[in-house]
Amino acid sequence: MNESTKALMEKRIELTQSRNSLKVVSDESMRRIEFAALIMAKPNHYTENDLSDYFMESVSTVRRDALELRKSGIRICSKKRKYYILDKWSDLMLNKLICKYMALNKYDHIKNLTLIRKKYKDETLLIFVNILNAITKRHILHISYGKKDNESVRKEVSPISLTRNGRDVYLIALENDNPNKPRIYRMDKIDSVEFTDGKTRNRFYPDIYDMFKYAWGIFLGGREYDVELKFNKEVGDDFATKFYIEEQDISEFSDYYVLKMKVKVSYDFISWVMGWGGLVEVIKPEMLKEAILLRAREIIQKYDK
Length: 305
Known about the structure:
This protein is α+β, with helices and mostly antiparallel strands.
């Protein structure tokens, strides 16, 4: 057994123990996706004995996994007893594998996958696998995200979750392991990911539910306000049954609806309100009225020439 395989096996043992403690079961399909990710990232590197050690399974199980992956359309081959994948994956196949590993519906489509793949190339699936493993093991990541003076900004983060909003994938993490600094990073904007053995100092992570309780969409910015909006009946008869946020109340009157909610008034929320055009009127707070008026004036100035 070579040193790199031995190191992989040690990490696998630690991950399995961590999963067992969290009652997370790695089923056959997850193992097979991880198998494919390893081979795609490092073709002609792993033998069936290496993979047997890594997954702590028999050689016959490794061979069976390879056979099942071939049946699913992944053309795994071997040369001098080392595995490689014959063809590059299509975005459709990569999307399918990532969604399955993240326990998403197989018909989900990750909108920003093409941009993610441009950055990580053949390691794309392995990046997702390793981030999810880092979440399970509570390990620190070093990422490059955003630009300052035309250089990527390096950040140390404690990953909490990979999540979806619409069809984009985001990493939720604590910046500098600070529980008061939860941040959202869009995967296609992360320039690089470095996996470390360092672990979070936090015994407990912030609750994801509480984190997003008053957030509008995926973004955590904005100050919480009690918002009251008046909608014309032209919005449709089903408006009264719609769900927008955790704390909301919709009252129906003869010719209008009133929507009351507690929400963080962010840029995205203001855009949502403005998207209703003349069908909505802001009753409160005043700052929301002012923000909409300011943006409306800026738009008018663009065309009033």
